[in-house]
Structures are given as structure tokens and as C-alpha cells.
Design a protein that fits this description.
Length: 556
């Protein structure tokens, strides 16, 4: 299967029966604005726990919420169970986690980012602008009134937070893992003392303060300090310095290091998160609302374009050749797939559901990982960067594993790269829908034999464990900068040799410990292969396994 395109598509293997989004089959004019401002989607992954990573909102309308609780972020709420099994990580159309009213009967929210309207129903706004929320029951897009202008319209719910809450603080990054905090703080251009506050991964009700540091032994690094909560509501890193709010704790350590590795300087910069969808009810969209601008690639089953939706928003557009898959089957899968949200998965925005099918997704600036490694900046990457990219992919696959989904075609050609070496998984589940005989035969020329586990290639037994096998092959692509697996061997030979027990030797320059992980992924018995959760942990800690996760601090 030739999918080495800039094609950010995610399809799921799993279940049927999702509720369809509202569909407006009105004229294309709904998606036209009076002017055509510059595209507003950021091309950089938002490492903060935006709504692509957030968990499902509570289902009780108007339930009381403590906005200074650790469990609330501007990007999502506590996790729930899905009808498919596993924890939900979606901002589906469920009642908002925020209460209907605050003090005085009026809900006041503040904008965390600038936003430029994409349709005539949207509100444009600037960071810091305040809103009264008129209707917050539909999850991703809320009806709001600007207090400054009096105008009403829809706003993306992950762009706002309750005024005067922790979530509205620039330094609060919400639900974010230790490794993602390190990636963000260690970005080029950041200085010593730059910081962020996030929810603790390990202690419920606690937070973590992450600070960029430097020393002669390790060079640039990140220190993490646990912020604990007192029974009376206060906060502390050390019991001798207690504060009644997180805001006061941060203010104190911005003025004095007081035992930390460095005093807090500036807040870690971030970028706008992706919105959930292009706009309210913009799911099945008219073909006329898309403009194809730059052809990025072509494969067996279609083309990939950079384009613009509604004259306002930069997107990637996959055009499928007629007959590639049944439109009804695709739409059914896409309805399910769009609910998968994680910051290491490329989000699906919208579809044109009549043939030729168009699939609209986030545009990723650096294209496919395969091309990036062979022809782009990836040619010059060293092992630590390559292992970190592998850890990001494992993070996304661990989410797919938790959600009981299967990718079926995991390889470097189906990973997309953004700025700052951000990696996102694309194309999962697509393989199951393809109706081409040269693909469905599994032995055909279009089938990716070299990446496929033997039980899947021979008997069609695709599971998350066959994805683990494919991940092991993807690791060889990373460390060899895009070399084709099993060099010098044709597909039929690979299948025969692997069945006899042959496994690729350790690539040149690859540490033996990483090759050992590859060989674990290639165990003949699928049940003996590791989980993606294990793989993620192994890779994230690959260079730091001997260091403590949290710093005690000097004199703390």
C-alpha cells in the first residue's frame, strides 16, 4: 500500500453505532465569510493538553464544578468510559463540564488565545476578551456573547476558560505528561528558568512545576517539583513555605529561587491548540467550500493537497479515487474516527461524502516521517531526537491500544511531522476499507508485507499486537533514516524468511538495547510482544532511567 504522502487521515478499526453529528445540508453559502482573513490554524502541535488530548466531559448538565480543582483544565475534564470499552478521550457533543452559572447568575469566561472567525456564525476575538456563555451544552463550540462588543456567535470551547480560575493563567498547562513538558521547555530559544505548571501524573489533587535548567554535566535539562495541596486548600513545594493559592506560590518563586534550581523567569511559550472541527456543524461539507492549492503527493488510491476551507482555514485534503472504498462504509467509520482525540493523532476535521471522497484534516508542516528522514531535516537528527520521535509515536499508539482500536498500517510513511519534531499518527483503519484486489489479497503488490506481522499477512489476524510488530519495523526506519526494511529482499522472500525465524540484525549505529526492543516487538507469539504502554515508558525513559522523576530541591 503506497501511502507515503502528507496525508493526515485517521480511520478506526472498531465499532459501529456512534451517533451521527448534526448535518446541515444547506447551501454552500453557510461556509462563506464576508472577508477572507489569513488562515488561522496553527501548524505546530500544541503540547498542552488541548481538547485533542482531553477526556470526556461529565454528562450531568449544570453540575457544580470547582474551577480551581486539579481535575479541570481549559481543555477537558475527567475521563469516562466509552461504549467501545476503554477510557474516552473525546470532547464529544455532551453537556459542558462547566456549570451553567457562576456568581450572580452569569457565566464569565476569558479567551486564552486570539481567534479569527471562519464562518458567519463564528465570533472573532482577542486573547483576554471576556464572554457570557449563552449555550455550553454542545461540547466543542459554545454560543457566547462578547462583553466588550455585545456580539453573539460560536466560539471554540477549548480557547476559553472561566475568568479568574487557574485554567485562565498563562503558566497553567493542565493535563500534560512529564515528557511532553520536557519537550516543550527544551525547545530551541527557551532560556533557563522558563517554566510551566501542570497536573501531576502520579498524585491526584497535586500539581507539578516544571523548570528549564542548565548544569555543566547535563547541559540543558528540566527539573520537576511536586506541588502538594493542604487540607485547608493551600499549596506548597516545601512545608516551610505555604501559600493560599497556586497564583501566590508562582509569584513567590518568580521573585526568589528559595531552594529551587532557578527562580521562575518567563512562562513557557505555547501555540494555539487545534479546534475540534472546522466550525460548528461543519462535518459533511460542500465540495465548493474547499480550494485545492498545492499538490503534496500522489499514491495508489488518491492525491494529497494543501488547501483552504471556506477561504479562511489552511487544511490538508485527501482526494480518493472513485472505487477505492464504499462511501457508506467510509462515512460510518469516519463518524467513529473523528471522536478519537489525542495530541499524537492527526485530527479529522470534515469530509465530502460523495465520490470522489474528500477527507479534510490538520495540515502538518513537515510532511511524512519517511520523507522527513530521507530528504528533510531528519537526515541530520541524532539518536536522542530519533528515540524521542519514537516515544511520541508510542504515546499515540498507547492511546489507540487503550481505546481498543487497531491501526493496521503503521509505518514511517503514515506518521506526519510538524514543527519542533512533533510526530502525529495518521491513516489508521484506512486499510480495512480499501477494495483494491492487489491490496486485499495481502500478497499483492500494493500490500505492505515488510511491515506486517506474519499472522496478519498470512491469515488476516490484525490486532494491536500486529501493530506492535509494525512498530518494531518503524524503529528500524527511524534509526536508518528511512531505509526500506529487509534490504535486498523481495516481499515473498521476507514472508518466507520471517516464518522460518529470521529477524533483521541490529542496524549500524543502533544501540543493542534498542535492537532488543525491536526483537521483543517481533516475537512470533503475539501475546509475548510488549504493550504500547510499556514501549512508551521504555522509550521516554531511555536516556533518563537512572534519574529521579521529581527533584527534592536544595534546602527544601
Amino acid at each position: 500500500m503506497e501511502m507515503n504522502l502528507f496525508f493526515p487521515l485517521i480511520l478506526t478499526e472498531a465499532t459501529m453505532g456512534c451517533i451521527k453529528s448534526k448535518e446541515d445540508k444547506g447551501p454552500a453559502m453557510k461556509y462563506r465569510t464576508d472577508n477572507t482573513p489569513e488562515p488561522v490554524i496553527s501548524h505546530v502541535s500544541h503540547y498542552g493538553s488541548d481538547s485533542s488530548q482531553a477526556t470526556q466531559s461529565p454528562s450531568i448538565k449544570g453540575s457544580a464544578v470547582n474551577f480551581n480543582s486539579h481535575s479541570m483544565t481549559p481543555f477537558g475534564g475527567p475521563s469516562g468510559m466509552t461504549p467501545f470499552g476503554g477510557a474516552s478521550s473525546s470532547f464529544s457533543a455532551v453537556p459542558s463540564p462547566y456549570p451553567s452559572t457562576l456568581t450572580g447568575g452569569v457565566t464569565v469566561f476569558v479567551a486564552l488565545y486570539d481567534y479569527e472567525a471562519r464562518t458567519t456564525d463564528d465570533l472573532s476575538f482577542k486573547k483576554g476578551e471576556r464572554f457570557q456563555i449563552i449555550n455550553n451544552t454542545e461540547g466543542d463550540w459554545w454560543e457566547a456573547r462578547s462583553i466588550a462588543t455585545g456580539k453573539t456567535g460560536y466560539i471554540p470551547s477549548n480557547y476559553v476558560a472561566p475568568a479568574d480560575s487557574i485554567q485562565a493563567e498563562e503558566w497553567y498547562f493542565g493535563k500534560m505528561g512529564r515528557k511532553d513538558a520536557e519537550r516543550l521547555l527544551l525547545n530551541p530559544g527557551n532560556q533557563r528558568g522558563i517554566f510551566l505548571v501542570r497536573e501531576s501524573e502520579t498524585t491526584k489533587g497535586a500539581y507539578s512545576l516544571s523548570i528549564r535548567d542548565w548544569d555543566e554535566v547535563r547541559g540543558d535539562n528540566v527539573k520537576h517539583y511536586k506541588i502538594r495541596k493542604l487540607d485547608n486548600g493551600g499549596y506548597y513545594i516545601t512545608t516551610r513555605a505555604q501559600f493560599e493559592s497556586l497564583q501566590k506560590l508562582v509569584k513567590h518563586y518568580r521573585e526568589h529561587a528559595d531552594g529551587l534550581c532557578h527562580k521562575l523567569t518567563t512562562v513557557c511559550p505555547t501555540v494555539k491548540p487545534q479546534t475540534q472541527g472546522l466550525a460548528k456543524d461543519a462535518w459533511e461539507i460542500p465540495r465548493e467550500s474547499l480550494r485545492l492549492e498545492v499538490k503534496l503527493g500522489q499514491g495508489c488510491f488518491g492525491e494529497v493537497w494543501m488547501g483552504t476551507w471556506n477561504g479562511t482555514t489552511k487544511v490538508a485534503i485527501k482526494t480518493l479515487k472513485p472505487g477505492t472504498m464504499m462511501p457508506e462504509a467510509f462515512l460510518q467509520e469516519a463518524q467513529i474516527m473523528k471522536k478519537l482525540r489525542h495530541d499524537k493523532l492527526v485530527p479529522l476535521y470534515a469530509v465530502v461524502s460523495e465520490e470522489p471522497i474528500y477527507i479534510v484534516t490538520e495540515f502538518m508542516t513537515k510532511g511524512s516521517l519517511l520523507d522527513f528522514l530521507k530528504e528533510g531535516e531528519g537526515k541530520y537528527l541524532k539518536l536522542p531526537q530519533l528515540v524521542d520521535m519514537a516515544a511520541q509515536i508510542a504515546d499515540g499508539m498507547a492511546y489507540i491500544e487503550r481505546m481498543n482500536y487497531i491501526h493496521r498500517d503503521l509505518r514511517a510513511a503514515n506518521i506526519l511531522v510538524g514543527d519542533n519534531l512533533v510526530c502525529k499518527i495518521a491513516d489508521f483503519g484506512l486499510a480495512r476499507l480499501i477494495e483494491d484486489n492487489e491490496y486485499t489479497a495481502r500478497q499483492g503488490a500494493k500490500f505492505p508485507i515488510k511491515w506486517t506481522a506474519p499472522e496478519a499477512a498470512l491469515y488476516g489476524r490484525f490486532t494491536i499486537k500486529s501493530d506492535v510488530w509494525s512498530f518494531g519495523i518503524l524503529l528500524t526506519e527511524l534509526v536508518t533514516k528511512g531505509r526500506v526494511p529487509y534490504p535486498g529482499m523481495v516481499n515473498r522472500e521476507v514472508l518466507e524468511q520471517v516464518e522460518r525465524g529470521y529477524r533483521m540484525p541490529c542496524p549500524q549505529g543502533c544501540p543493542e538495547s534498542l535492537h532488543e526492543l525491536m526483537k521483543l516487538c517481533w516475537k512470533k507469539d503475539p501475546d509475548e510482544r510488549p504493550t504500547f504502554e510499556y514501549i512508551q515508558s521504555f522509550l521516554e525513559d531511555y536516556f533518563t532511567a537512572t534519574e529521579p522523576q521529581y527533584q527534592p530541591g536544595d534546602n527544601l
